[in-house]
Predict the 3D structure of the following.
Amino acid sequence: MDIQPEMLNYILIFAAYLIGSLSSAIIVCKIMRLPDPRGEGSGNPGATNVLRFGGKKAAAFTLAGDMLKGLIPVLAVKYMGFDTLLIAQVGIAAFLGHLYPLFFQFKGGKGVATMLGVMFGFSWWVGLATASTWLFMAKIVKISSLSALVATALAPVYVWLWFHESGPISATILMTIVLFWRHRSNIQNILNGTEDSIGTDKP
């Protein structure tokens, strides 16, 4: 039975969501026999929180996994020859899968690393620009959340400079808005001067 093009698009978008739903932090912590990240530190299943209680190695594996969840689906659709609109939709689906994972009661991370993976999938230059912005800010302010907010705020600009196409630009703007909303408590802490520095342990 032939699959209609529109049905194939839906299948690819849903597959990207399922890939995004694989929580790297929870999987890495189980493999390395570390506590469930949802019950430690900030309670966020992401690389920054894993760093607090699990160390650099566990955090690095978590970061790599979260990035690959965004990168692999986008690259797969891109190299299958689909247009930039579907590529953008697949990127959003992987990102939302990380935030609201089907396999973990729809309680996921904040999406920074997965969004970065999507940016690398859109373009290696866009990914490098976004990652470099995060690293530059982290070097100066030493606050992961603030560095991520600055980097993702500039990501739509980088995508616009590279693509000039509405699909990737709109997708990046949407992910940035959602990411800022997911970081609303961090933003309040930053304004209050109480946000933790990178590597700081939570009581």
Observations:
- The chain has a mean pLDDT of 90.
- The two ends are 57 Å apart (CA to CA).
- The chain has one domain: 5-192.
